[in-house]
Amino acid sequence: MGPVADPSAHADAQGAHTYVHAHRGEELSIEGYRILEEPYYCATRDEIDLFEQAHRLKMPVMLKGPTGSGKTRFLQHMAYRLGLPLITVACHEDLTASDLVGRYLFVDNETRWVDGPLTLAVKHGAICYLDELVEARKDTTVVIHPLGDDRRVLPIEKKGHIVEADDDFMLVVSFNPGYQSILKDLKQSTRQRFLALDFVYPEKSVEAEIVARETDTDPAVAVRLVELGSMIRNLRDHGLEEGVSTRLMVYAARLIAQGVPARRAAEVSMTMPLTDDPDMLATLRELIEAVFE
Amino acid sequence: MVETPPYVSARLAALEPVDAALWAEVAGHVATQRLRDRRGLLIGLVEGLALLPAHPDLRDTVHGSLRGFTSRSSRLTTAYVSMWRSLAARVSIDEFREIDRLAHELARDVDLAASFMDYAPAILSRRDMSFLRVWHAGGVELAAGEWWASRGFLEAVGKAAHWLREEDLPVLVVLGAKVGGRSRHAVKGLFNALPALVAGMRVSQLVEWVELGLELTRREDDLVLYMSYGSKRSQEAVEALCRETSFSAFRPRVALLLEAFLGRAAHLRSMFELLNPATVPPDIPAFSDGSVLYVRPALGCVGAAPFALYKLVALHATAHERFGTFDDIGLQEALRPNEHVLGGALGLLDDVDRFLLGVAEDARIDAALFRTLPGLRRDAQIVLEETYGHLAGVALSAASLRAHLAAAPFEVHVLADRSLEEEIDQAVAPLRREGALSVETVQAAGALRRILDTCAPGGAVALMEPTVDDREATEVPYPPYHDHLFLGLELAALQARTSDGSAAGSILPGTPVDVPGSLHPSEVITGLEIAVRDKQQETDLLILEDEDEEEDGGVEGEIFTYDEWDTGISDYRTRWCTVRCRTLPLGDPDFVAETVERYKGEVLLIRRQFERLRPDRIKRFFRQVDGDEFDMDALTEAVVDRMAGVPMNDAVFIRRDKKQRDVACLFLLDMSDSTDQLVEGDRRVIDVEKEGLVLLSEALGQLDDEYAIMGFSSRGRKTVDLYVVKDFSDEFDADVAGRIGGIAPLDYTRLGAAIRHAVQHVGTQPAVAKLLVLLSDGRPYDMGYGDMRYAMEDTKMALSEARRAGVSPFCITVDPKGPDYLEDLFGVNGYTVIQNVGHLPTKLPRIYRNLTV
To answer: What ipTM was assigned to the predicted interfaces of this complex?
Structure first.
């Protein structure tokens, strides 16, 4: 069984669930996937409204945006808001259809069918979130096609039947368009089944608020980190296509709150991870030195 | 009868009788002469005499000198009065008497004495009496030989005292004598240019530069041009001598910083591309016309690291753009000299008002800049201490006000009268708050004007017409990182007028750029011919007429024809271009080997990195219907399925196979003559690109990716040459190496046709992923290839065709203006700019790796 959220796992302060391997053979109760505390999310545009509409109209949604731009947090927030359980699957190259749909297991001398995360969501009316869908092989991805059009059914071939999606079921995938790699892309037949919500890094004052709230740091520090982040993003054309994510700024802020000197915190969280190019690193160091004394 | 302006009469009445008598005497004497500014002289005289009661011991000296000088020339009178007014309160009695005596020593020559007196206050404010004595002695020594040398020396040192030490002066005297001995005009030019030169280099470097000039030039014309800092050679010599501190050394780094700060590509040029270096006041570090930032190519700052100063200069100048100076039309109109009265509220602005507007706006910008980038404060502190630290404390004037506003936030105090500081700070307090707008600048400027009027010596209350002494500006240095806003605005306006066709005010060769409101000693800055020619050249180049040559039949190789997209008619011109594709002849056989040797370290690194990327030759494919071993996960699942009654899946094997990467890439190299430009030392763009190809080949050799290398160059639509350096099926052998060595700059860049042919070629490859990587150094451009837009649209169309054919295009460019047009052509993720061209070879493999991972 692929990695699935374990209800008994510890939920950290922001209400996110950690990923843990499921216990052998046990079907996890859907209740374990409910989000109990409201995750903090600051809207940048009309994404909340649009998502609610999409859910009402039973349309699947693609969250497009660079890494660390709030896609997952947004979804957690919406799941909480709509009162739905959220089942997340991290997609990778070896993900198979069975991982999504389910498989027979041999337990206690008999075969037992165990639903996969997708089936679980379809049956019980939860949100199924396929994170980084493009990483999965194309022959796995096609499994979601029947769910992504008006049929809203999931064929389970091995059991020989078709599951109709509960009214509340929603399919959500994430996609990062920033990769320049030509070897990985989504087929049009997949793409064209989704509404796409665009996630961009928020406007500076909003982002500063997010950073401050996530980490409980001095707002002035948050403002500086956001200024640094925005300057780094302006260097898109020079090899830093993704810029720096809000997530990394949060890391930096957390380090600073713990007493790490600001320049060093910014260096290890916001620049060293981004690039190995010595020229660019030198420039990024200049930027840090300009922003932090 | 002597005309006595009413406001002067009031002051006269307040003078001591003996002083008033002297005034009348002088006034009577000058009444009969032709004078440029009689009124100014008389006003200055009355003000100067008004100071005497405070310094009674000097009355005799002053009276004597005034009489003596006036009988010789009113020029001397003016100079003496001005000097007296500046120095009266600042020097001791003995010192003044000494200076007076020194002036008389030179008085045999009116101009020399006048120059001495003009600049003595500046010398004293930036240096000391000892410096002044050595300066004077230098002038005397040179006067014995070449008069021009002496005059030039006195004035140049007067303007550039800030950058010189006492021990430098004798060296300059020797230089002056030497050059003066060769040519009078040359030494005149040299000292004219001296402030600009020493602002950016040490005197020892200056000596080298002069020696070089004397050696290189034979004819006097050339020597004069060189010494005036006007010839390209002389400017290049400066750059070469000051390599570590010169602009070109820092430009890539500064450009990146600006791009990060501003959010758009930064255009950074040397100001001497636009203006005659000898005429730009040395205090001006930079100016921006709103899109291009012109920087002095050699900034001198003895204490701080040069890069720190460049950073400050560049960021301050662009801060104007970021924080809205150019958004407020009202402010801009007020800053520029024009005939319109600004909306009643400000009334008629004079030069002082304009100056103060600039001062206030700079204060607002400074506050915003250091608030946003507090890390710069340390650098600013060092620079300001270096500049103002030695000033004993000066009287309030327009120039010292500017200096105070810049320096006070860093605890560097410029003004003698500390009590004024609070008042001044209150006036600008609204500007220093976050979110202050340029509207508040206008109000603050008004408040500053009131302070200046009431507190400055000889305040406007006494005189109906404010006069500002140019000398003041030389005494208190301009803040080293404040750009010259007026100059930039003026140039922007001039250029705007030129481009929309109105001939009046176009920048003709030698056009003086008049910047009132700057209160700088040399308010008129002479423009260079280049300013006009640049634009002209660009427009000329853009439309090269097709020479309509017949195809050159004698060339071997295959011939292809391609359509070309004409955006004007929104259609293709069918079979418009003739592409000739042939193998590149062999060139330097050792080039590849030498490059590998030179980049030994890099090559090792590349081999290691790309080896890791190499599919392990053998890749295991899971859940296969056929294979060498069982896939246990799949098998388990299948067995359980069967036990559950589900038909058993037969895909339970693991197969080993090669080919995981299925990439074919064609590298298309622009071989136009623009790649002939020198980039680093003696390497040209093309050399750097060739090295890049060598390293790339090393990388690709590890991977098993199919790749080809082709170069292209065109001369009109019938002559588009594609050269095969390495084809997909070729091994990287001695022939390929020889061909790489043979790559050389040729003609032009008809990109559309080249792309279409390249796409056709890579389209024949079976690989799933097909890449076309263009190595470029600039825009598409060819004979008969229309204007810029035509060429762009055709290229854009060719790239669309490529994508439709399943080929993904990507562009790697060394053109810093790349982002302006590449985003449109290749998409936001479809190109990359290499800022430091010299690093291209090492970056190419990395870029390729990221592209195909």
So the answer is: 0.74
